[in-house]
Amino acid sequence: MDCSYWFYVLLALAIAPPLVPNSALLAGAGALAAAGGLSLPLLVLIPLASAVLGDLVVFSVGRRSRGRALEWLSRNARRRWMLEWVSGRIHRYGIPAVIAVRFVPTGRGVGGLTAGVVGFPLRGYLVGAGIAETLFVSYTVGLGYLGGQLVAGFGPAPLLVGPAVSLLVASVALGVQRWSGRRLDRAAR
């Protein structure tokens, strides 16, 4: 059996859990696809299916163990604040909030858990999670692929594309988070 099949299996297993950072892995896989080692369509479809399945599991845990999930989320101040923030957004905006929370650090796990806890409809959650994961997987693999194309022929440089794209995406997300936090602080005054 070709070793690339095992890569796809490991990729699916690594992407499913929402608490595992996976941007570098997806971008690195995109760079490997640019080098011709992996199939680009499979690099989008497999992580997409795996991520939505992982999101669904977290949502189901929130739905089935509401009391324990609320207790866990309420144990520390940051998670409690995140629960209140996500819950408010989900009640107010619905599917767009499910999509947006995917792009907040730790939002994939807390967002899915919260959506389950507050009784958000399963169909709406799947639509939101599907759209969010499609965006995330597509742009992360795509950026890795483009980066791999740019550094093709530069020796081991394609191996650095994944971490570089991950740092870029994390920096942009952190900048947006800080900017929006400052806006919220100003609005609260």
From TrEMBL:
<keyword id="KW-0812">Transmembrane</keyword>
<dbReference type="Pfam" id="PF09335">
    <property type="entry name" value="VTT_dom"/>
</dbReference>
<feature type="domain" description="VTT">
    <location>
        <begin position="20"/>
        <end position="145"/>
    </location>
</feature>
<keyword id="KW-1003">Cell membrane</keyword>
<dbReference type="InterPro" id="IPR032818">
    <property type="entry name" value="DedA-like"/>
</dbReference>
<feature type="transmembrane region" description="Helical">
    <location>
        <begin position="157"/>
        <end position="176"/>
    </location>
</feature>
<comment type="similarity">
    <text>Belongs to the DedA family.</text>
</comment>
<dbReference type="InterPro" id="IPR032816">
    <property type="entry name" value="VTT_dom"/>
</dbReference>
<keyword id="KW-0472">Membrane</keyword>
<protein>
    <recommendedName>
        <fullName>VTT domain-containing protein</fullName>
    </recommendedName>
</protein>
<feature type="transmembrane region" description="Helical">
    <location>
        <begin position="43"/>
        <end position="62"/>
    </location>
</feature>
<feature type="transmembrane region" description="Helical">
    <location>
        <begin position="125"/>
        <end position="145"/>
    </location>
</feature>
<keyword id="KW-1133">Transmembrane helix</keyword>
<dbReference type="GO" id="GO:0005886">
    <property type="term" value="C:plasma membrane"/>
</dbReference>
